Every structure is written in structure tokens, then in C-alpha cells.
Amino acid sequence: MPGCGSAAASGPGRPATEQIFAYGAAFGLLADRLFADPRHGHPVAAFGRAAGAVERTLWHDHRGWGALHTAVCVAGAAGAAALASRAVRDHRALSLTLTAAATWAVVGGTSLGREARAVGAALRADDLELARELLPRLCGRDPQALDEPQMARAVVESVAENTSDAVVGALVWGAVAGVPGLVGFRAVNTLDAMVGHRSPRYLRFGWASARLDDVAGWPGARLTAALAALAGGDPRGSLRAVRQDSALHPSPNAGPVETSFAGALGVRLGGTLAYGGRVEHRPVLNGEGRPVEVADIERAVRLSHRVGALALAACVTGRAAYGLIRRRGAATARERGGR
User: Fold this and answer.
1) Rounded to whole angstroms, how far apart are CA atoms 115 and 106?
2) What is the DSSP string of 24-66?
């Protein structure tokens, strides 16, 4: 895919980038499944600290300064990844290791499922206080304002949205741009979580990060919605929910993902929620579904894992197909040039 090169464009003796991505991404996802995110020293946390330092230097209540902050942080992360990729591009084992390490560092499907299941276990035990304590690890809802069904719904919505943000979107950009794509996407997504919300401090300063996250997340969200429909128990219901209700969601990317999960699981999402004391009344998604139950948390996690596996297959296939098309095009051009 664009920005990465292919075997034909890599030069003599250089490893095929399609194979590097395929094996590296697969090993990275396997590492995530086996080890999840590290408790300490996570590279994304290190990026967050660096971005916070840049923010303290650049913060002004102005969109232009926010755009500069976004550019510095994203370009810095993606640029460092590009330099690392270039340094090992002639060495197959090192390239594969770098791709695997980057994939493991930026995806978070296992930790997502672990945190969701922890809230589900607390709800099954009727320990609402523990569930309220654990919920902020998944989403920014005000847990004190939620009862058991509302917390279960919040978890399912968070699993759906973060399947796109923490797994599928990263794989899509990895297929498009290799290690710089993986790292750049995670940088964009992390900045949005840090400054992209509509608080008084970040309404203007975080505007660029939020808009860039919308753009970067667009392809991954659509692929996630399609794969959730394919992997869920009701493909027709899932696609119907997406067509009818996805545009009702205030987020252009969370809308398709949440409605697809809602249709696949046969549940109703959306409605009233609270963020930091601010109450929002959002439209109901998949109104034909039933209310979310605690048992649906486990169903959502399993669906998320299936979507992640299918996303890997889709991205590897897409990158391989693009490489084949490029090689054939290059061969045709050489044949014409030799006549």
C-alpha cells in the first residue's frame, strides 16, 4: 500500500515488505494476546508524558497553537518510527522484530477485554462500588451517575469503540505505512484522548487533534463495522442498524462501530449518559434491540477478539494484493520500455 513500498520497489536483496508486515503484525497481536500491555514502562505512556511536556510549552487557548502541538507530537513519533524502519530495512529479522514490537506496543485488545471483564465480574457480584471504581479505566463516563444496566451499556459501547481505536485502526495504518503508520495512528489517537475533548481548556487547543483523529480513524471504523457485522450473530440486523442509526451518533467514527456492535449483539445502545457532571441525551442506537445486560459484556469482548483477528487477515490480504498489483505494473512498464 502507499507509503511503504513493495518487493518490486524495495531494491535488490531487500526483504518483501508485505511479508514483513504480515508476520510482524501477526506476532505483535499474538504478543498482545499473551502478555497484554505492560503495567509499567509502556511506550504509549512515554509518548503521553512527552506530549504533556510539549503541551505545557505550547498551550494557548487558540486553534493554531493546538495544531502546532498536534504536528510536533505526531510528526515526532512517526518520524522516529520512520528512522527506525529505515535503519533496519535491509535486515529481514530486524524489520520483522521492529514491526512485531510496534504492533504489540500500539494495539490494546487484550487489555481492553481484561478491563471490560473486570467491570462485568464486579457487576455480576453486585459490587457496584467496585464497578464504579473500575469503569474509568475504560471510558470517561461519570460512574457515580450510572446504575448497573447503564454501566453494562457503557462497557459494551467502550469495547465497540476501542476495538476500532485500539486494534483495527492501528492495523489499517500499519498496512498502509508500516511501522510509521502504526506509531503515527497511536500518537493521533492518544492525543485525541488527552486534549480532544470539549472541556474549556481544550475546546480550541484540542480541535486539531480531534479532527485529525476523526480523519485517521475513518477507515478503521468502517472496517470494524463491516467485520462486526460479519463476525456477529445477526449480519442483517447489524447492517440495518448501521444504515438507520450510525449518523445519529455525534462521532463520525464511533457511530458506525457502536451501531454495528449493537445490531450484532441484538442490544440497544445510546441514550442518556454523563461526562464529568455534564449530562448528554444521545439518540438510541438499534432501537429494535433489547437493553444491555451484564452477560452482554462477555459477548462484546468475544466479538471484539473475532473482529481483531479478521482485521489482521483483511489488512494482510489488502497489503499483499497492493504489492502484487505494483509488481505487475512495474513488470508491464519494463516490458514496454524494452520494446
Assistant:
1) 17
2) HHHHHHHHHHHH-S-SS--HHHHHHHHHHHHHHHH--SSHHHH
- Residue recorded with cell 514490537: 101
pLDDT at 109 over 70: yes
Determine how many CB atoms are found less than 10 A away from the CB of residue 119. Answer: 26
User: Is residue 265's pLDDT more than 80?
Assistant: yes
Pairing of strands 278-285, 267-275: antiparallel
- Helices 207-231 and 254-265, axial angle in degrees (round to 10): 20
How many angstroms separate the most distant Cα atoms in the chain?
78
- Of 178-182, 198-202, 242-246, 256-260, least confident by mean pLDDT is 198-202
Give the integer Cα–Cα distance in Å for 172 and 123. Answer: 34
Provide Rg for the chain, Cα atoms: 21
Residue 219 reports pLDDT greater than 60:
yes
CA nearest to 198, candidates 113, 138, 110, 275: 275
| Grid coordinates of 263 | 445490531
pTM above 0.70, yes or no: yes
